[in-house]
C-alpha cells in the first residue's frame, strides 16, 4: 500500500538533483522552473512503472462488448458512449476508484495512503478520443491527475495530458507531452482560461498518421505534426491504451515541490464522464485504417485525415500567445545543443 507510489515520488525527487546540466544553470527561479519540467519528464517513466506494477495485480475484466474489429485488417469506427464499465477497468487504488451512475461517471480519489487509476480495455491505433474531466477542487497543491495514451515497452509512444494541482486560487498547470519510440522531452504547459475544477470540460486527443492535436473544449491547444520527413519518429505503429490516475506528487508538482499536499483536504477527487472514442481498435494483433471494409471509409475519414484548418490555427495561436507558460521549442537554455528538429516546422 503506497509502496510503489512513494517509490515513484522518491525517484522523481532524487533523480534531477544529480543531473549536472541543472547545476550549471544560473538563478534559483530558473532552476526550479526547469527542474519542474525536467522532473515531469522523468516522472512519466516512474508513473508508468507504478501503474504497470499495480495493474498486474488485477485480473482483466472483459465485458460483453461486441468486437467491431475482426482479426484481420478491418477498420472500425466505434462510438463508446459514456460506458465506463464496458470500456475501462480500474487498475489500482484499492476501492478509491469508482464507476457510478450506471457506468456514466467515474471518480478517482487520493488520500494519504494511496491514489487510484484506471485504463481502457482496448488498445487503439489512431483515433479521436474525448473525455470530460472535473479536477480536484480547492487546495489541490501536490496532486496530479494524469490522463494519457500510452503503448507498452521501453521504446514506447505516449500522448499526455497531466494536470498539476495548485493552492486554492492559483491556476492549475495543464502539462502536455508527446513520446515517440521512448523519447519525450517535448513539454508544453498551459494555464487554462477557466476553472477546471468548477465543471466538466472536454479534453480531446485527435491522433492520425499526420498529426496529434490536443484540444480543450474543442479549442486546439497543441498540434504535433508528423515530421518523419526530417527524421523525427512519429507514433504510428504502436497501439496505445488510455490511462488515468490521481496521485500524490508533492515533491515536484506545485511550484517545483515547494508547496506540499495539505492532507486535511483529503480525500481528493477527480471525475470523468462522457467518454467517446471514434477510433481504430487494435484487436488480435491487427488494426488498420486503410482497409476496404464496408464500415471503414466514410465513418473515419473526417478525423483520419484531419489537420488544423485556418480557423483552428488561429485559435491555436491565440492559446499559445495568451495561455502557454512553457514551450520546449523555445527553451534554448535547456537544449544548448539545439532545439528539437520538429520545432522548425511548427
Ligand atoms: C454477457 O453475455 C452473456 C452471454 O451472451 C450473458 O449471459 C450475460 O448476461 C451478459 N452479461 C451482461 C452483463 O450483459
Ligand atoms: C483475413 O482473414 C481471412 C479469413 O479469416 C483470411 O482468408 C485472409 O487471408 C485474411 N487476410 C489477411 C490480410 O490476413
Ligand atoms: C449516447 O447515448 C445516448 C443515450 O444513452 C444517446 O441518446 C446518444 O445518441 C448516444 N450518442 C452517441 C454519439 O452514440
Ligand atoms: C501555481 O500557481 C503559481 C502562482 O500563480 C504558479 O507560479 C505556478 O506555475 C502554478 N502551478 C503549479 C503547478 O505550480
Ligand atoms: C491545511 O488546510 C487547513 C484547512 O483545511 C488549514 O487550516 C491549514 O492551515 C492548512 N495547512 C497548511 C500547512 O497550509
Ligand atoms: C458528451 O460529448 C458529446 C460529444 O462527444 C457532446 O455532444 C455532448 O454534449 C456531451 N454531453 C454532455 C452532457 O456534455
Ligand atoms: C471506401 O473508399 C474507397 C476509396 O476511397 C472507395 O472506392 C469505396 O467505395 C469506399 N467504400 C465505402 C463502403 O464507402
From TrEMBL:
Residues 31-272 form the GH16 domain. The keyword Glycoprotein applies. Keywords: Apoplast, Cell wall, Cell wall biogenesis/degradation, Disulfide bond, Glycoprotein, Glycosidase, Hydrolase, Membrane, Secreted, Transferase, Transmembrane, Transmembrane helix. Gene3D superfamilies: 2.60.120.200. The chain crosses the membrane at residues 14-33. The keyword Transmembrane applies. GO terms for molecular function: hydrolase activity, hydrolyzing O-glycosyl compounds; xyloglucan:xyloglucosyl transferase activity. GO terms for biological process: cell wall biogenesis; cell wall organization; xyloglucan metabolic process. InterPro entries: Beta-glucanase-like, Beta-glucanase/XTH, ConA-like_dom_sf, GH16_AS, XET_C, XTH. Contains at least one intrachain disulfide bond essential for its enzymatic activity. It is found in: Secreted, Cell wall; Secreted, Extracellular space, Apoplast. Its main location: secreted. It comes from the Eukaryota. Pfam families: Glyco_hydro_16, XET_C. GO terms for cellular component: apoplast. Its EC number is 2.4.1.207. Belongs to the glycosyl hydrolase 16 family. Catalyzes xyloglucan endohydrolysis (XEH) and/or endotransglycosylation (XET). Cleaves and religates xyloglucan polymers, an essential constituent of the primary cell wall, and thereby participates in cell wall construction of growing tissues. This is Xyloglucan endotransglucosylase/hydrolase. It comes from Escallonia rubra. The lineage of its organism: Eukaryota, Viridiplantae, Streptophyta, Embryophyta, Tracheophyta.
Amino acid at each position: 500500500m503506497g509502496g510503489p507510489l512513494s517509490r515513484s515520488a522518491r525517484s522523481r525527487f532524487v533523480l534531477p538533483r544529480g543531473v549536472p546540466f541543472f547545476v550549471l544553470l544560473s538563478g534559483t527561479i530558473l532552476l526550479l522552473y526547469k527542474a519542474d519540467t525536467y522532473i515531469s519528464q522523468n516522472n512519466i517513466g516512474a508513473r508508468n512503472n507504478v501503474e504497470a506494477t499495480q495493474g498486474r495485480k488485477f485480473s482483466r475484466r472483459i465485458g460483453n462488448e461486441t468486437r467491431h474489429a475482426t482479426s484481420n485488417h478491418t477498420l472500425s469506427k466505434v462510438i463508446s458512449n459514456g460506458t465506463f464499465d464496458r470500456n475501462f477497468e480500474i487498475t489500482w487504488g484499492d476501492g478509491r476508484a469508482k464507476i457510478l451512475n450506471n457506468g456514466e461517471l467515474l471518480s478517482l480519489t487520493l488520500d494519504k495512503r494511496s491514489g487510484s487509476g484506471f485504463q481502457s480495455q482496448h488498445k487503439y491505433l489512431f483515433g479521436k478520443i474525448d473525455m470530460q474531466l472535473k479536477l480536484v477542487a480547492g487546495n489541490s497543491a501536490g496532486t496530479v491527475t494524469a490522463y494519457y495514451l500510452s503503448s507498452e515497452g521501453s521504446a514506447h509512444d505516449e500522448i499526455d495530458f497531466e494536470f498539476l494541482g495548485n493552492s486554492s486560487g492559483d491556476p492549475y498547470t495543464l502539462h502536455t507531452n508527446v513520446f515517440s519510440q521512448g523519447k519525450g522531452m517535448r513539454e508544453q504547459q498551459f494555464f487554462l482560461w477557466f476553472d477546471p475544477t468548477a465543471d466538466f470540460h472536454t479534453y480531446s486527443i485527435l491522433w492520425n498518421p499526420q498529426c496529434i492535436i490536443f484540444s480543450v473544449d474543442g479549442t486546439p491547444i497543441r498540434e504535433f505534426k508528423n515530421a518523419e520527413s526530417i527524421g523525427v519518429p512519429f507514433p504510428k505503429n504502436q497501439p496505445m491504451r488510455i490511462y488515468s490516475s490521481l496521485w500524490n506528487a508533492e515533491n515536484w508538482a506545485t511550484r517545483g515541490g515547494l508547496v506540499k499536499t495539505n492532507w486535511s483536504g483529503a480525500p481528493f477527487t477527480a471525475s470523468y464522464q462522457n467518454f467517446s472514442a471514434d477510433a481504430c481498435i487494435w484487436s488480435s494483433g491487427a488494426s488498420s485504417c486503410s482497409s476496404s471494409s464496408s464500415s471503414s471509409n466514410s465513418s473515419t475519414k473526417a478525423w483520419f485525415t484531419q489537420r488544423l484548418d485556418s480557423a483552428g490555427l488561429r485559435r491555436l495561436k491565440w492559446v499559445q500567445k495568451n495561455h502557454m507558460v512553457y514551450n520546449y521549442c523555445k527553451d534554448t537554455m535547456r537544449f544548448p545543443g539545439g532545439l528539437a528538429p520538429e520545432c522548425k516546422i511548427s
